[in-house]
Amino acid sequence: MQLRYAFRLDPTPNQCIALARAFGCARVVYNDAIAAREQARAAGRPFLTAAVLSRTLITEAKKTWERSWLGEVSAVVLQQALRDAEAAYRNFFASRKGKRKGPKLGAPRFKSRKDPRQSIRFTANARWSITPTGRLNLPKIGEVRVRWSRALPCVPSSITVVKDAAGRYFASFVVDTDPAVDAERMPDTDASTGIDLGLTHFAVLSDGTKIDSPRFLRRAEKKLKKAQRELSRKQKGSKNRNKARRKVARAHARVADARREFHHQLSTKLIRENQAVAVEDLAVKALARTRLAKSIHDAGWSQFVHLLAYKAQRYGRTFVQIGRFEPTSQVCSTCGTPGGPKPLGVREWTCTGCGTVHDRDHNAAKNVKQAAGLAVTACRAPVGPEPVLARREETGSHGSPPDARAA
């Protein structure tokens, strides 16, 4: 399967200027493509193809005085911007026709130079490379220093350079994983577990293990409040306001990075120790509209479940999501007697059928496991639905350059 390996970049001031130029050119080509298609639609003309847009918006535009500066960046960056516009329209039409799952998508919109996130993409045609010293050589940008944390498993097929709201630069490599190496890294096991996600405890396992919720946002609220207050006092359009905005963005980035690292470590641990994992399909969007919205967003359940799903698929584990209407907190996991709905304040209850005293979350985790039917056979083949296909970028700490180099 394909994954993204993201690494931090440390460009020089001149390289930052070159990257800003590339971001701007890609944004202009993207906006020109949307404008050209909207003008054709308004005039009743046929839908412009990617080949026509490439010839008019890139090849011929470089010869004009207004767009001559497009030649200062790699042509691959401009072509990928057209591909992004093409994908945006394709997803929009698929959503309108009901062929695309999820919420309805709106028509593609123009990108702004004030967007907090900027990105460009290089494919193999751009002839980028990794130098023997571990630097990333990008066309018309130069050799950029990379904070490597691990070796790339193979030669990447493409690379995306991203600048986030905090002013940090990242290189995201698309690589293909080796199933044989993944199987060796995560040998089969006979264990399986059910997981009940919550707020008091982030996760409670069916074996009784309770994992406390780190509450990264709650712990950082004091610093975030101070940084936001300083931002609100700065004059709009001033350089000091831009500095204060980046300070707020860095504070939020630290919270998001810590939460993502916690999710990665916990999901990897659960996948390594269990052949099958089951969780409940929670209505996170609906719960986020309640009075517990801040705590639910702070927990990041959706991201954690997404990591579990793609890692289970990668390492040959079974991942199951049971229905959100399963009464996991109402039924006795010992005898199956319904106990009825209970308010959140009730953390323990006694079954009227068998007299067992249940911890609310532990009982729910055991019911999740039973509802998923996670029984492991003698041949270590878990009984349950097939793994869910999912992909997600992985994180890592700073380290030395990798041993494997991409040519």
Explain what the structure shows.
With 407 residues, this protein is α+β, with helices and mostly antiparallel strands. The relative contact order is 0.13. The chain has helices at residues 13-43, 50-59, 75-96, 179-185, 216-232, 239-273, 284-287, 293-299, 301-314, 360-372; strands at residues 2-10, 118-123, 129-130, 136-138, 142-147, 158-163, 169-176, 192-197, 201-205, 210-212, 276-280, 318-322, 348-350, 357-359, 375-376, 382-383. Residues 375-407 have low confidence and may be disordered. It contains ten helices and 16 strands. Helices cover 39% and strands 18% of the residues. Strands 2-6-7-1-5-4-3 form a seven-stranded antiparallel beta sheet.
Number of helices: 10
Unreliable stretches (pLDDT < 50, length at least 5) are 375-407
Mind summarizing the main beta sheet?
Answer: 7 strands, antiparallel
* Strand proportion: 15-25%
Structural class: alpha+beta
- Gap from first CA to last CA: 21 Å
Write out key terms for the chains shown.
single chain, 407 residues, alpha+beta, seven-stranded antiparallel beta sheet, five-stranded mixed beta sheet, 10 helices, disordered C terminus
